[in-house]
Amino acid sequence: MKLTLALHNVDEQARPITTGTISDGDERLRYLSLHRSFENLKGLKLKIENELIPSMEEEAEKMSGMDISSLSDLTLADEIARRESIYVKWEEIYKDDCIPFAHGMRLFGQVYNDIIKPKDPFDPQDWRITAVWPSVCTRCLQCIDICPENAISIKW
Fold first, then answer.
1. Residue from 53, 26, 33, 152 nearest 96 by CA
2. Which of 106, 84, 93 is nearest to 30 (CA)?
3. Does residue 33 sit in helix, strand or coil?
4. Residues 64-100: pLDDT tens digits?
5. N or C terminus: fewer CB in 10 A for the chain?
6. Residue 30 contacts by C-beta under 8 Å, 6 or more apart in sequence?
7. What pLDDT score does 23 carry?
8. Which of 68, 95, 94 is nearest to 82 (CA)?
9. Is the pLDDT confidence value at 17 over 90?
10. CB under 8 Å to 104, separation ≥6 — which residues?
11. What are the beta bridge partners of residue 13?
């Protein structure tokens, strides 16, 4: 598969994206799909809040309620394989739905700063960071450390 792109402007820097061949397992095509419409982002938000998170919580509850110490070796091996397939399923859902939504939220913050032009975008009086899903946010701030885009930061 061949991919050709023009110049892409990010954070006031023109970055050339060259022509190249995309190999199997290359995530660049997935990242190109991150550009979503506002309507699509609203739909993703509802899907994540109303379908994905409740389903994930339900699945986790079922697994945590299972006493695996009483399983035979064969049954345990089957359970491990079943849980691995659940993990793979949720990893794909994360890539397909959560990453594009997070990318949209990051862009919202960028647009907000570009349009509103707050004196200090990190001033807590001007801009408060709130979790998209407060019911599952523990405010541990690990999201800052693991964000692959380095899009989340807090300055005091």
1. 33
2. 93
3. coil
4. 999 999 999 999 999 999 999 999 999 999 988 888 8
5. C
6. 95, 99
7. 60
8. 68
9. no
10. 34, 36, 41, 44
11. 10
